[in-house]
């Protein structure tokens, strides 16, 4: 959750504009990396300072990384689905091949039985 805190000396500047000026109540921080930013620098100007604590804010860097991670997870899920489909098709094809091989074996045995004892000219 975005937090309204007294900004420490170590993190006292806005990561967007690099300025430490402004009312400390007009700062928010990223809920993942804890980067501080002026609310105006990250387009949170319409939110009252007493409500800023209720806003889950992600900085640009974290938002991009989270978006990329979500896309990666989605791609993995699609790959798993595709792999299941391919596996099912492969299993069906192997069943067909096994049945054909068994049938060929039966025919080969019948041919051997039918030609047993025949001599060539």
TrEMBL record:
Q: Return the SUPFAM superfamilies for the record.
A: FYVE/PHD zinc finger (SSF57903)
Q: Which domain of life is it from?
A: Eukaryota
InterPro entries given for it?
Answer: Znf_FYVE_PHD, Znf_RING/FYVE/PHD
Name this polypeptide is given: PHD-type domain-containing protein
- Lineage of this protein's species? Eukaryota, Metazoa, Ecdysozoa, Arthropoda, Crustacea
């Amino acid at each position: 959750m975005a937090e309204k805190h007294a900004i420490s000396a170590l993190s006292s500047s806005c990561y967007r504009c690099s300025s430490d000026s402004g009312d400390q109540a007009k700062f928010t921080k990223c809920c993942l990396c804890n980067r501080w930013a002026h609310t105006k620098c990250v387009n949170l100007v319409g939110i009252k300072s007493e409500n800023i604590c209720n806003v889950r804010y992600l900085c640009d860097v974290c938002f991009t990384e989270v978006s990329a991670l979500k896309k990666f997870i989605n791609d993995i899920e699609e790959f798993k689905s595709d792999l299941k489909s391919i596996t099912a098709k492969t299993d069906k094809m192997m069943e067909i091949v096994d049945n054909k091989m068994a049938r060929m074996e039966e025919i080969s045995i019948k041919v051997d039985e039918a030609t047993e004892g025949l001599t060539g000219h």
